[in-house]
C-alpha cells in the first residue's frame, strides 16, 4: 500500500523567484529574531524566558519557571527550523549556537531521561498527572522532531541521543502493560514525531509507541476521566471531542475539536497506515480527509472556523468574518496532506498543499517577515473587528511575532523545509513525481543511477514550467506530473515535441514513461486563467458570491484599492476580468482588474430601510493576492465578492 | 413645546381581531402563570422565590433571600400588568390577589420607607453602596410604575402611598445637597418612573428628582469610580458606556451600551424635555433617536446587535444571524418613541412603534403565550445556532417563560397597556391624533364636549380603516391621521365623499379640520402593497438582499415552507409577489408567494470549491410574518432574501 516517499530536503535545492526570498526571510530575519526572543533580548517584547527555564532546570541558575506549560516547544521549533536552514547552507555561528543549546538540553535532562522544564522546575511531583492539559508529551514530540531534523541536517547525533534517552524513558512509562500509564496526550504531536524517530533510528519500538498512543486514544474507560478523578477534579467543561478523544480514532468520521490537534493526529494516523500497510486505517484517514476538505475548509486552505476552542464546528459552517483559520492549522493540514499523498498518488492532496501554501499559510506572515497573523479571516471590516466582542480574535493588522508563541516558529519550520514537499519517488515502479511547481534542483536514484531534475517554474504568476533531466546515460523511468485542479488544459512538449497525454493520466497525475536521455527537456504549460470560484451551495456564507482565483492564488479586494464597503461591490457574471503582474506592488504581485458595479450613493438618503430601488454605478475593481493583504494601511478586505 | 398627550388607557377600549386575542392571552394565560411562578407553584420550573423574599423581609417567615439582585422587579412588573388588565375588566379575584400583595409590600417596607428585599434580607448594611450594579433604584422604579398604574386602574391609593413614602425617602438620600449621595442607578428606570409619579400625584419634587438623576449621569468626578473606590474595587472591566454614563447625557450623540438601559434613559430624557419645555434636551433626544433608528435598528424594530453586554455596537453593524435584539429593548424603544411622539407630531415615531409592535416585540411571544424569545435573530440556521459558541445566545425555539425573568412580564405589561399608544389629543389646538390603526373605541374631550371615535381597522392584513365619530352636537376640531411610511397612497372619504388631502399633511400626519357632525364617518384606505425593502448600503449584512414587508408586517421564510438552505434562494428583481390571508395557518396570517430560484442540486458534486457555473431551478417561495416564526417545527428562518 505504501506508494512513494518524498525526495528529501537534502536532495532538493529551491531556487525560486517567489519562494527563495521567503526562505531567506526565515534565515535572515525570523531565526535570529526568535533567538533573541527566547533569550529575552528584545526590548519591549513579551517575556519568553525559554532559555532561562532550561538553565534553571539544568541547575545552573536560580529562579522560577516562567511561561506557558508548553514553553519548551518554542525552543524545539526554533531548533527544528535551524536544522532545515542548515541543510543547504551550513553556518558556523548558527550551528555553534544550536550545539550550545543542545548541550544545555543535555544538562537539563534528568537522570532518567526526562526533559521538560515546566515539571522539572515548577512541579516535579506532577509529572504525567495531567496529560489532558499539560502538553508534556506534546513538548517531547517537538523535541523529537527537532532532534531528527538536526541529525539529518548536520550528521551530529548528540541531540538525537539525548532525545532517544527521553523517548526510551517515555516508552517505559506508557503502554498497555501492567504498571504502565495507559494514557496519551491531550495535544497530539508525539505520535507523528515518534514515526520520524523510528525512521531516523530504525528502532521499531518508537513506531510501536506511536501506534499505541494513536490506538489508545478515545477508548473506554476513558483515560482523561480516570486521570481527572485521580486529580480530584469534579467537573470539566471541555468535551473529549476537543482532544479528538471522543471516540477511538478508527471510529471517527468527522474532524472535530481543536483543528491543529486534529491534523497533527491525522498526520500520525496516515504515517501508521503507511508503515503498517493498514488499509483500514488509511480508509479512516480518507473519510476524515473528505470531511475536512469537502466540508470544513476555507478556500484559502484555512481550517477551524471557530475562535472558541480554535475548533472545527459543523459541515459548511465557514463564516468569512469570523473565520479562525489559524495559521498553524493550515500548516498542520499540509503535514497531513503530505503523508496522504505518499500513500496514494492522488493530486487532491498536493492541490490542498498548494492551496494552503499560497494562501492561508502565507497570509500568516508579512512580506518583511516581521509580523504575523494567527487568525486568517476572509473578510474584514475594521469597525466590527475592533468593536464586536464575538470578533475579538480578528486582528486587522499582523502582530509583531514576539507577542505570539506557536504560529511564527511553525511558519519558519515549514518554509525552511519546503523542499521536501516538491517531489516524491517510487523506487519499485521507477517513478519520480513532481507535486509542486517551484523552481528547484532535485536528485534521486533510479536503478542505482543518479537522476537530476532541474525545474524552472513561473508559478504562481504563470503556468510555464520547464524541466531538464540530467543523468549519465539513457534510463527508463516514469515522470509523473501533477495536473493542478485549477488548470483546465495542459500541454507538454518533450524536446520541443508535443506529447499526446490522452490515456496517460490517473488521479490527477500525468505519467510519462520513456527511456529518458541525458539533457531531455520538458516544457509544460498549465492554463492559468482567472477563475470565478463558487462554494458548495450549502456554504451559506458564500451564497451568491465568487472568489477570484488564478492558478493556486486566491485573490481579495482591499480597501486601499477599492474604497470602503467592499460588500457593496457586485461583479456581474458577464464582467471581463483581466490581470497582469505588477512588479512595483507588494514586492511583485499579479493584479486582477475588471468592471463591477456598486450602489450609486448619490441617490441614497439616511433612511435605514426603504422600498426604493437603488441605482448602480460602475467601479473598476482591483484584486490582489489574499496572502499579500494587510501589508499597506489597515482597512477592509474581502475574498468572496457578490456576483450577479 | 409640549404638543399633545396620549388618550389614556381608561379611555381606549381595544376590540381588535388581531390584538384582542393577544391581550386575552395576557389576561388568561400569562398573568396567572406568572403568579404561580412568583410563588414557586410551577412544578419543574426554575425557582423564583419572589413572594417568599417579601415574606422574609416582612418578618413573617424565616429564610434566605434567593434570586437576582433585581428579583423584586418581577413582582412589580406583574402588578403593573395586572393593573392594566383591570382597567377595562375589573376582576374581584385578581384584584384581591393584588391587594394582598400590596399589603405584603407594606409589611416588607422598612420604617424609613425603604423597600427592597435583597438588601433588607441579605445585605442590610449594603444599601446604596453599589448603585452601578445592584439595581436598587431600578427596582424602586418598577414599583413606582406599578403603583401609579394600580392607582389609575382601581382608584385605590394604598400602593401609591407606600411608594410615595419610598420615593420621599429616596429623595432624602440622593441629590446635590451636602450630605446626600450624589449618585444614580447603573440601570436607568427610576427616572421615567418618577415622571409618572409626578403626574399621578402632582408632586413636583418627584419630577425634580428624576431631572437630578438624569442630569447627574456621566458627570466628572465620576460617581461610579468614587463608589467603586469606596468599595475597595481595584479594577472593573465594563466601561461606563455600558451604563450610558460615559458622558453627561446632553453630550451623548450615539446610543451606546446596554440597549434596554439606553432606551429607558432616553424615555426619561424625552419626558423631562416635555415637562420642562427643554428644547435643547429634546434636540439631544432627536440626535440619539436618529442614531438608533437610522443606523442601529433592525427592520423588525429590534435594537442592540451584540449578545455580549446586550449592547449597541457601531453604526450599520446589524448581523442577522447574531442579532441580539432583545424583546425588552424593542419594548423600551416603544416607550421612548411614544414620548417623542407626544412632543413632536411626527409620524416617524409612530411608525417605529408600529414596526416594533408587529415584528420585534410580537416575535418575543409564541402564539399560545406560553413561550418566549429574549433574543430575536433575523436569520437562523439551527446547525450553527446550536453549535457555534459565538451564537450561543440564539435559541431556535422559544423557551418556556419561567426560565426567564425580564422579557415575559415586559411583554405582558406592554400588551395589556396597548390602548395608550393609539391616540393622542392636543387640547389647545383641538386635535385628536390617530397613531395606530387598531380597532377600538376612544373617548376624548374637546371644549368640554365628549367626542367618541369608533375605529374599525383591517390592520395588519388590509389597509381599510373606518372611523365613526360620535358626539352630542356639531363640533369643530381637527382629526389627525398618521400616514404610515409604508403606504404609498392614501384615500380618505368622509361620509362617502372623497377628501382632497393635498396641502393638509405635515410630518406624516393628515390634518382634517372641520365642523364634525355626530355620526360622521371616515373611510380610510392605505395602499398596503407587498414591498421589497432594502437596507442602507452600509449595512454590509444585507448587501444585495431584500426583506419583504407588507403594511407594518415584516415577512420571513421558514424551513417548514421552503425547505432547507434558505440562503440559497434568490428572488429575481422582476419576480411577481402575491399574497393572501390564510385563516388556517398560524392562527391566521397573510402569506406571500412568488417564484424565486435556487441552485439545481442535480449538478452539484461534493467539491467545496469549483469554477463551474451552477444552474438554477425555480422554487415557489412562501413567506409568513416574522412574528409568527418558530410556532411549528424547529428549522431555518430568514428575513433578508438574496435578490438579483
From TrEMBL, chains A, B:
InterPro entries, A to Z: 6-hairpin_glycosidase_sf, Beta-AFase-like, Beta-AFase-like_GH127_C, Beta-AFase-like_GH127_cat, Beta-AFase-like_GH127_middle
Pfam (any one): Glyco_hydro127M
UniProt domain Non-reducing end beta-L-arabinofuranosidase-like GH127 C-terminal: residue ranges: 530-642
Coiled coil: none
Non-reducing end beta-L-arabinofuranosidase-like GH127 catalytic domain location: 11-419
Domain (Non-reducing end beta-L-arabinofuranosidase-like GH127 middle) ranges: 431-528
UniProt-listed PANTHER family: DUF1680 DOMAIN PROTEIN (AFU_ORTHOLOGUE AFUA_1G08910)
The name this protein goes by in its record: DUF1680 family protein
Provenance organism: Caldalkalibacillus uzonensis
Amino acid at each position: 500500500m505504501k506508494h512513494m516517499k518524498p525526495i528529501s530536503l537534502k536532495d532538493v535545492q529551491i531556487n525560486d523567484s517567489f519562494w527563495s526570498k521567503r526562505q531567506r526571510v526565515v534565515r535572515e530575519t525570523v531565526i535570529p529574531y526568535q533567538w533573541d526572543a527566547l533569550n529575552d533580548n528584545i526590548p519591549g517584547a513579551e517575556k519568553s524566558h525559554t532559555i532561562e527555564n532550561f538553565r534553571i532546570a539544568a541547575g545552573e541558575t536560580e529562579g522560577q519557571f516562567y511561561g506557558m506549560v508548553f514553553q519548551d516547544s518554542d525552543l524545539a521549533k526554533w531548533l527544528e527550523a535551524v536544522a532545515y536552514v542548515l541543510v543547504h547552507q551550513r553556518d558556523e555561528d548558527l550551528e555553534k549556537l544550536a550545539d550550545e543549546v543542545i548541550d544545555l538540553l543535555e544538562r537539563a535532562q534528568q537522570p532518567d531521561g526526562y526533559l521538560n522544564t515546566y515539571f522539572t522546575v515548577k512541579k516535579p511531583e506532577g509529572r504525567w498527572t495531567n496529560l489532558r492539559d499539560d502538553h508534556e508529551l506534546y513538548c517531547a514530540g517537538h523535541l523529537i522532531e527537532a532532534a531528527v531534523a538536526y541529525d539529518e541536517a548536520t550528521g551530529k547525533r548528540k541531540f538525537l541521543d539525548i532525545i532517544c534517552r527521553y523517548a526510551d524513558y517515555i516508552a517505559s512509562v506508557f503502554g498497555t502493560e501492567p504498571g504502565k500509564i495507559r494514557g496519551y496526550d491531550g495535544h497530539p504531536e508525539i505520535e507523528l514525531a515518534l514515526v520520524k524517530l523510528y525512521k531516523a533510528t530504525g528502532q521499531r519500538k518508537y513506531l510501536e509507541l506511536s501506534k499505541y498512543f494513536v490506538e489508545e486514544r478515545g477508548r473506554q474507560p476513558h483515560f482523561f476521566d480516570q486521570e481527572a478523578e485521580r486529580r480530584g477534579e469534579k467537573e470539566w467543561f471541555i468535551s473529549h471531542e476537543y482532544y479528538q478523544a471522543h471516540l477511538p480514532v478508527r471510529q471517527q468520521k468527522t474532524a472535530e475539536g481543536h483543528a491543529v490537534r486534529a491534523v497533527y493526529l491525522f498526520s500520525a494516523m496516515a504515517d501508521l497506515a503507511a508503515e503498517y500497510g493498514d488499509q483500514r486505517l488509511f480508509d479512516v484517514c480518507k473519510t476524515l480527509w473528505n470531511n475536512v476538505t469537502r466540508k470544513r475548509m476555507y478556500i484559502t486552505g484555512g481550517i477551524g472556523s471557530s475562535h472558541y476552542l480554535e475548533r472545527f464546528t459543523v459541515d459548511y459552517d465557514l463564516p468569512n468574518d469570523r473565520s479562525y483559520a489559524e495559521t498553524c492549522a493550515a500548516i498542520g493540514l499540509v503535514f497531513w496532506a503530505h503523508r496522504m499523498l505518499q500513500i496514494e498518488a492522488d493530486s487532491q492532496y498536493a492541490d490542498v498543499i498548494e492551496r494552503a501554501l499560497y494562501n492561508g499559510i502565507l497570509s500568516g506572515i508579512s512580506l518583511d517577515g516581521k509580523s504575523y497573523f494567527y487568525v486568517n479571516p476572509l473578510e474584514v471590516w475594521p469597525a466590527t473587528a475592533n468593536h464586536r466582542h464575538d470578533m475579538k480574535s480578528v486582528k486587522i493588522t499582523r502582530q509583531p511575532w514576539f507577542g505570539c508563541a506557536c504560529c511564527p516558529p511553525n511558519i519558519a519550520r515549514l518554509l525552511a523545509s519546503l523542499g521536501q514537499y516538491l517531489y516524491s519517488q517510487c523506487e519499485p515502479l521507477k517513478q519520480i513525481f513532481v507535486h509542486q511547481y517551484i523552481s528547484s534542483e532535485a536528485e534521486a536514484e533510479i536503478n542505482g543511477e543518479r537522476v537530476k531534475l532541474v525545474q524552472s517554474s513561473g508559478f504562481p504568476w504563470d503556468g510555464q514550467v520547464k524541466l531538464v533531466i540530467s543523468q549519465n546515460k539513457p534510463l527508463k523511468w516514469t515522470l509523473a506530473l501533477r495536473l493542478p485542479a485549477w488548470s483546465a488544459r495542459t500541454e507538454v512538449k518533450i524536446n520541443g515535441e508535443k506529447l499526446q497525454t490522452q490515456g496517460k493520466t490517473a488521479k490527477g497525475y500525468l505519467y510519462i514513461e520513456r527511456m529518458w536521455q541525458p539533457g531531455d527537456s520538458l516544457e509544460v504549460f498549465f492554463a492559468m486563467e482567472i477563475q470565478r470560484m463558487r462554494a458548495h451551495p450549502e456554504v451559506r456564507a458564500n451564497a451568491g458570491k465568487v472568489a477570484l482565483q488564478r492558478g493556486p492564488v486566491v485573490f481579495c479586494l482591499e480597501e486601499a484599492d477599492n474604497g470602503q464597503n467592499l460588500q457593496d461591490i457586485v461583479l456581474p457574471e458577464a464582467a471581463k476580468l483581466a490581470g497582469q503582474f505588477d512588479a512595483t506592488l507588494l514586492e511583485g504581485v499579479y493584479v486582477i482588474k475588471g468592471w463591477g458595479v456598486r450602489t450609486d450613493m448619490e441617490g441614497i438618503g439616511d433612511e435605514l430601510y426603504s422600498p426604493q430601488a437603488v441605482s448602480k454605478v460602475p467601479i473598476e475593481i482591483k484584486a490582489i493576492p489574499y496572502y499579500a493583504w494587510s501589508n499597506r494601511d489597515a482597512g477592509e478586505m474581502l475574498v468572496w465578492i457578490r456576483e450577479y
